[in-house]
Amino acid sequence: MFANPSYDVLIVGGSHAGLSAALVLGRSLRRVLVLDAGQPCNRQTPHSHGFLTRDGVPPAELAAIARAQLAHYPTVELRAATVVGAAADAAGFRVETADGATHAGRKLLLATGLHDELPPIPGLAACWGISVLHCPYCHGYEVHHQPLAVLSGRDSGFEFARLIHHWSPDLRLLTNGPSQLSGDEAAHLAARGVTVIETPLQAVEHEAGRLRALRLADGTRLPLTALFARVPFRQASDLGTQLGLSLTDAGLVAADEFGRTAVPGLYVAGDNSTLMRQVAAAVANGSKAAAFINHELIAEDF
Ligand SMILES: Cc1cc2nc3c(=O)[nH]c(=O)nc-3n(C[C@H](O)[C@H](O)[C@H](O)COP(=O)(O)OP(=O)(O)OC[C@H]3O[C@@H](n4cnc5c(N)ncnc54)[C@H](O)[C@@H]3O)c2cc1C
């Protein structure tokens, strides 16, 4: 039981969303502890694009700038740690780290991100974030008008192919087995010159993560610059479910636009609760959740 928690806010996850929240809360004179396992989902990508003033900066550099700026705030403490357990009590929340330490805070923000489950296709993981890409807004510009492919996921792949076609009409859709395209979708793709390939993808040929060609099960070799793939994901942490939160059909933590969850005092921010997976969105979510948490603390104390 923690009658007087040492922190106002515990933040689990110290990447874009978590550090953004820490900045706003630290500047709001809140005692903040950020616990981070250091495994952001974009860690393999050489350049992070689309975040105003920091376009093309390596993700690790973005995080280093954020941590250096946070170091000026005595209100914010950053620790490298994996949180393995979380519980709510009358005074707030208590978390336990893998090394056995426990910390208590009045509010808890989970900024724990998602874990991408890459299909076990040889070469694909090595290219993830480099030339096997999840998002055209992040990496489309760099490969525009180059030979590209889309790998369909759970759905037919039509929507994703239509999106990527905007960046390059030199496009093929790999359905990795029998196509689920409707007749209408297939006709639309054909009219735009998008080839549909049903032969399963066997391997991704690359040099240091730079795609050279896709190898298909029938031996065909497709020289390409990049492959866009929407891969399945899961929550990177089960702390939310430990605390009684349920997930949406899409696998995200359900929360309102300020990151408030169904559990009082428990907030989420960043990829774990939005399909808009972008640094700018994660930073914005962290900032919004932080302001709301501060409001809630003021309302409780004033
Ligand atoms: C390959 C790839 C490339 C991308 N490129 C771009 C790009 O160019 N531009 C762009 O805008 N967006 C890009 N994105 C999206 C962007 O990276 C994410 O939207 C952003 O990282 C989300 O931030 P986040 O803080 O929510 O989660 P993350 O950055 O994933 O960070 C979550 C953090 O929480 C920590 N954590 C999780 N569980 C625990 C726990 N139990 N205890 C302690 N710590 C924990 C993790 O270790 C990690 O450090 C890319 C994504 C991917 C996958």
Topology:
Blueprint: E1 7-12, H1 16-27, E2 32-36, H2 59-70, E3 76-80, E4 83-89, E5 92-97, E6 102-110, E7 114-116, H3 124-127, E8 132-133, H4 136-139, E9 148-151, H5 158-165, E10 171-174, H6 183-191, E11 195-197, E12 201-207, E13 210-216, E14 221-223, E15 226-229, E16 233-235, H7 239-242, E17 266-268, H8 279-301
Parallel strand pairs: 1-2, 1-6, 2-3, 6-17, 8-15, 9-10, 9-15, 10-11
Antiparallel strand pairs: 4-5, 5-6, 7-16, 12-13, 13-14
The chain binds flavin-adenine dinucleotide.
Flavin-adenine dinucleotide is lined by residues 12-18, 35-42, 44-45, 48-51, 82-83, 111-113, 116, 128-129, 134, 138-139, 236-237, 239, 270-271, 277-280, 282.
Highlighted features:
302 residues, alpha/beta, FAD/NAD(P)-binding domain, 2 domains, 7-stranded mixed β-sheet, 8 helices
Notes on the protein architecture:
The mean pLDDT is 96. The chain has eight helices and 17 strands. The strands form four sheets. Strands 1, 2, 3, 4, 5, 6 and 17 form a seven-stranded mixed beta sheet that branches. Strands 8-15-9-10-11 form a five-stranded parallel beta sheet. Strands 12-13-14 form a three-stranded antiparallel beta sheet. The protein is α/β, with parallel strands linked by helices and 302 residues long. The two termini are 24 Å apart. The chain is elongated, with a radius of gyration of 21 Å. It folds into two domains: 7-116 and 232-301, FAD/NAD(P)-binding domain; 124-229, FAD/NAD(P)-binding domain (3-Layer(bba) Sandwich), CATH 3.50.50.60. Flavin-adenine dinucleotide binds at residues 12-18, 35-42, 44-45, 48-51, 82-83, 111-113, 116, 128-129, 134, 138-139, 236-237, 239, 270-271, 277-280, 282.
